[in-house]
Amino acid sequence: MGSAPTPEFNLSSAKATQRWGYVKKGINPDEAIILSCEDNFHGRSIAIVSMSTDPDAKTNFGPYLKNVGPIIPGTDNQVLRYGKIEDVELAFRNAGDKIAAILIEPIQGEAGIVVPPKDYFEKVKALCKAYNVLLIADEIQTGIARTGKMLCWEHYLSRENKPDMVLLGKAISGGVLPVSAVLSSREIMSVLEPGSHGSTYGGNALASRVAIEALAVVKDEKLVERSKEYGHFFQEELKKLAAESNGIIKEVRGLGLLCAIVVDNTKTNGKSAWDLCLLMKDHGVLAKPTHEHIIRLAPPLVISKEDLLKGVDSIRQALIELPNAKPVAH
């Protein structure tokens, strides 16, 4: 744990995974593979965007790190789709002896709050056990009470069947200080011997203390339970709004207080989710669109139901104005 930026700790997990693959699994030198999924977001360093399929993250960068990313080994550049267990099965079947790990978000955030099938993680974990592959859960967006569980993977797996490694950041400090962490077992992390890896701000005492206090607040104020209750309330109100939106909102999805509304651009008179977000801003709600038709909503864990209802009403007013609004370039 330390006050280093999140990408540095994603890189720490990658280095630990590679070394584990060589030292513990016995993968031949320079052949270890770390898989990721299509439409992932794990950071912006060169090594991490090597895993990306997002042109905005990759265009005019490179060269990229080999043997990492969402390309299924042994195929003609077939991409490993998120939530499709058959793609993981194919990858493991083709190169299970060389795969050190698979890195997955419990909910894909930048992709638009994409929730996988309920049994997806359980099936991935079973394959990882069968092929001796590490399952890494990137909880940097989903972790620390955001989805109605302390960690999002708890929606899918038992504690006896947990991921081999968990990545945390953002909320772990309550927004007070940049803090990130890699959580794993001693058996896995011990492959990083003294001198083999380090970080200028790793193990920062102040960052660690801030994180401890932030986690205490989450526990003492029952923010996990609050996220579950208020998230359900919020999504039910959004579904009511969708029903009266004349088809503009075609889907509401998410877990806890991490959710999204999906806009049907054929019903908006040529407007996009960006235009809707600008109208929402005028009515007091700040939100970020993604992929031109999805708006992510992640209210504070301490928000009141009254303020959630105000937010829903602001979106309602923006929807009324959207068809006649002037499109804004971005």
UniProtKB/TrEMBL annotation:
Pfam families: Aminotran_3. PROSITE patterns: AA_TRANSFER_CLASS_3. CDD domains: OAT_like. Its cofactor is pyridoxal 5'-phosphate. It catalyses: a 2-oxocarboxylate + L-ornithine = L-glutamate 5-semialdehyde + an L-alpha-amino acid. It comes from the Eukaryota. GO terms for cellular component: cytoplasm. SUPFAM superfamilies: PLP-dependent transferases. Transmembrane segments: none annotated. One of its GO terms (molecular function) is identical protein binding. Its EC number is 2.6.1.13. Pathway: Amino-acid biosynthesis; L-proline biosynthesis; L-glutamate 5-semialdehyde from L-ornithine: step 1/1. Gene3D superfamilies: Aspartate Aminotransferase, domain 1, Type I PLP-dependent aspartate aminotransferase-like (Major domain). One of its GO terms (biological process) is L-arginine catabolic process to L-glutamate. Keywords: Aminotransferase, Pyridoxal phosphate, Transferase. Belongs to the class-III pyridoxal-phosphate-dependent aminotransferase family. This is Ornithine aminotransferase. It comes from Pichia membranifaciens.
